[in-house]
Amino acid sequence: MPDLIRKEVEESSNGDRKRVAVGVRNQLIIAWLTFLAWRSENLRKCRIGSRKRGANLFKARVPARLLSKEAEWVKDAVKANPRKEFWQFSFAGTETRSGYPVYSRLPEQLVPLLKEYLEQHRPLLVGARDPGTLFVNDVGRPFDRRGFTDLVGSLTLRYARQRVTPDMFRHAFVMAWLTSYANGYLTLSNAKSGRSKPARRTTGRHAQRTSSRTQNSLARAPQRL
């Protein structure tokens, strides 16, 4: 679906750079929810910049204490260039629902589009005062919950013919891994969606409480996304 958003915007923009910027922002939002399934609040309030200044999303060296847990290609890249930097994200315990801090390297699938958005398109969307959040709405301000939910819902309805909210992305992500990897889904889903140990007791309840109508929506939507 992200590619469909981009294609339509490029074909209909008529040289309107801001319209293209909005389209790339929307493309990145849907791609982000597909790969990471963050809470709406974390994605809406995600701050970009320097980690030392409290940013949630930043480019920096992978901490030495965590390098051993990284993929082999990351270790090889650091070995070849000890100053190599990667896009990473971090949230303090006060910023997560579970109360536990979250840290991870950003999936490489998101990096090219993220770089393009930050360098070419986001500057066209921010107003006179940059709010510092990764995503801004059409008037350059941070999204509120309703505005963000409405945007994601309208995009999925338009391009996938099924309204899917940010929360449904999260539940679909966890349920898909539960179905495919019954023993290992918790570790991955917790890391990707920002859940920690307490979520192990609640993930199953979330799935059980999902209505049959929502389950049908989630079953169809990932195939179109």
Describe the structure.
- This protein has 225 residues and is mostly helical.
- It has one domain: hpI Integrase, Chain A (Orthogonal Bundle), CATH 1.10.443.
- Helix content is 55%, strand content 6%.
- It has eleven helices and three strands, in the order H-H-H-E-H-H-E-E-H-H-H-H-H-H.
- The protein has helices at 2-12, 17-35, 40-45, 64-67, 72-80, 111-125, 145-160, 166-180, 185-193, 203-209, 212-224, and strands at 57-60, 86-91, 102-105.
- Strands 1-2-3 form a three-stranded antiparallel sheet, with no helix packed on it.
- Helix 2 (17-35) crosses helix 6, helix 8 runs antiparallel to helix 9 (185-193) and helix 8 crosses helix 11 (212-224).
- The longest helix is centred in the N-terminal third of the chain and has 19 residues, at 17-35.
- The protein is globular, with a radius of gyration of 18 Å.
Provide the domain count.
1
What's the architecture in CATH terms?
A: Orthogonal Bundle
Percentage beta strand: 5-15%
Task: Report the sheet with the most strands, covering strand number, pairing sense and barrel closure.
Answer: 3 strands, antiparallel
Secondary-structure element sequence?
A: HHHEHHEEHHHHHH
Q: N- to C-terminal separation?
A: 5 Å
Q: What would CATH call the class?
A: Mainly Alpha
Mean pLDDT: 83
Going across the biggest sheet, name each strand in turn.
1-2-3
